[in-house]
Design a protein that fits this description.
mainly beta, five-stranded antiparallel β-sheet, 17 strands, 283 residues, 10% helix
Length: 283
């Protein structure tokens, strides 16, 4: 685990002067994530490995007050409630993460369903998407009644490589995934399948963070849900005309992610976060 010795020393001196205990800070490495395309295709995957690396972290003061949800750094993963345990089992019907191209191929090295916890969940009028993680890595889960059409639980290591480093990052914000997830559901008496594709941003924050916002670069700006030192947010995707053989493609420009502190001050901002696939470094 990477340790920021200078920051720890400063905190120890401050806390010693106040005779107060030191709270642990968690850090995380940024990853980007891949999803399985269904109704729409995502253009330009060939260049994503390079684009995903182009993320510039800058500190820029921006206005804003406190929002809902308070991050709390955690040294261990939270326990699942019975409802959350059921969500994990439904997300991983094969008993754990599977291969990104083969939903019947379980990858034992990525763990069992019992290893995973619901870390944070974003709910809106269309449903929900949850960040579900273990000590080694994470998957995204978007519940649907059409379980045979649900997104595959594709695994990504924290830090992109085994054994996974849950707490091995520095700073107040790390983006672990900017990707997309599909919610498939039946419509009308004929139960015709409809696929809603969401753009999803998720990651980890220190316990100093009180709000995370995403500027989607298309006129929308959304506050994330924060819990247990993790955050997640999603918006419905917009289709763009693609090549004739591809049909529609997802509009997925780079986004800006900003973490705010107690007084609305910017603690960290990541600009030009590139869209990418889940599973990088996990195959």
């Amino acid at each position: 685990m990477t340790i920021d010795e200078r920051r720890i020393a400063e905190e120890l001196r401050t806390m010693a002067g106040e005779a107060a205990p030191v709270d642990p800070l968690l850090y995380a490495t940024r990853t980007l994530a891949r999803r399985r395309r269904r109704a729409w295709s995502v253009a330009g995957f060939a260049g994503l490995a390079t684009a995903a690396a182009v993320v510039t972290a800058v500190i820029v003061p921006l206005p804003g007050g406190l929002g809902p949800g308070t991050a709390a750094g955690v040294a261990t993963l939270p326990a699942n409630t019975p409802e959350q345990a059921r969500l994990v089992r439904e997300c991983m019907p094969k008993g754990g993460p599977v291969h990104n191209m083969d939903g019947n191929r379980r990858i034992a090295a990525h763990g069992r369903a019992d290893d995973f916890r619901v870390l944070v969940e974003y709910r809106d009028e269309g449903g929900s998407t949850a960040l579900v993680g273990s000590d080694a890595g994470f998957v995204l889960c978007t519940p649907t009644e059409q379980r045979d059409m649900a997104e595959r639980p594709v695994f990504t290591y924290w830090g992109f490589e085994p054994p996974g480093d849950l707490a091995g990052f520095s700073g107040d914000l790390q983006v672990d995934a900017y990707t997309s997830h599909t919610h498939s559901y039946p419509v009308g008496a004929q139960r015709i399948q409809r696929d809603d594709v969401y753009r999803v941003v998720t990651g980890r924050v220190s316990d100093a963070v009180r709000r995370v916002e995403v500027d989607w670069a298309d006129g929308r700006r959304t506050a994330a849900r924060i819990a247990n030192g993790f955050f997640i947010v999603r918006v419905i995707g917009r289709p763009l005309p693609g090549p004739e053989e591809e049909g529609k493609v997802l509009d997925s420009p780079p986004v800006t992610v900003t973490a705010y502190g107690d007084g609305g001050q910017v603690l960290r901002q990541e600009k030009d976060v590139a869209f990418g696939p889940l599973g990088r470094g996990s195959d």
